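Small ribosomal subunit protein RACK1, Blomia tropicalis. C-alpha cells?
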Amino acid sequence: MASAQSEELVLKGTLIGHSDWVTQIATNREIPDTIVSSSRDKTLIVWKLIYDETNYGYPLKRLRGHGHFITDVVLSQDAHYALSGSWDKTLRLWDLNSCKTARRFEGHSDDVLSVAFSPDNRQIVSGSRDKTIKLWNTLAQCKYSIHEPNSHTDWVSCVRFSPSNNNPIIVSASWDRMVKVWNLANCKLKTNHIGHTGYLNTVTVSPDGSLCASGGKDFKAMLWDLTEGKHLYTLDHNDIINALCFSPNKYWLCVATGPTIKIWDLENKNLVDELKPEIVASKAKHRNSNPCVASGSNQLPIVNVFLSNK
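C-alpha cells:
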C-alpha cells in the first residue's frame, strides 16, 4: 500500500560477497555511495555502490580480525571509522582508510550483541549477553559498566545513543522485555519502559531524540516518549520484529518483521509501503533517505538495496 504521495521503494540490486548470514549494515551521508555490512562469516565488507542498471555495487574492501560471528556494525559521524561487535566478546574500531583495526575493546564476559557511537564520536556503548552495558572512550578504556541492581536481568540485545545534545541518554533493549533509558553523564537509570511481553531484539531513537521505538518477539513495535517517559502507542505486526529505524526527514518508522519491511506513517498510523525481500534481520537508511538499504538474513549472505522512485 502506497501513500498519497506515491513515493515507493523499489529493489534496485543485490550485493553478493559474504559467505554467511548478513547481520547488520551501516550507512553515512558523508559517504553516500558506500555501505558497510557485517556477517556471521566473521568479516566486514565495505561496498561501493555504482548505480548501474545491471550491477548496483561491488565489494571494495574486506575487514578481518574478529574470531567469531560479527553481530553489529556502525559508522562514526565523520565516516572515518567503523565499529563492530562480535561473539568473540570484543569490539573493534576500524580505520576505514587503512582497513586495519585501530582499537580492540576487551571487557565483556560473553558475546557482544550491539554497539553504537555517540553523536560526537567521543564515546562508545556496547551491550552483551553478559547482561551488562559498557561505556567506553575511543582509546578502548571502559569508563562505566552498568550492572546490578538496576541493570537488565537478561541479554542486552540493543543499545543506542540519543542523537540529541539536549537530552544526552543511552537507550537499551533486552531479552528481559524491558526498555531502559540511562543518563549519559553518570550512567544512572532514568526510566524503565514496561509493556512488552516477549524478548526484545531492537530499539531505535528518533532523529530529534524525542521518541524511541522498540520491538521483538511479541510482534509489537512500541513507541515511547523519551521526554515524558511514557508509552505512546503500539503498532501490531504478524511476525517477530528484527530491526527498526526512523526516517531522517519524514515522520516514518521502518519495521523489519518476518519476510517484510513495513513503513509506517506515525502521524496517522497508516502503513505507507510494504517491501518483501528475503527475511530481513537488519536495515539502515541514509540520512537523506536515499537509498534505503536492507539486508536479508534467512541464511542468505546477501544485501538488498532499495531506492526511492522519486
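Residues 1-6 have pLDDT under 50 and may be disordered.
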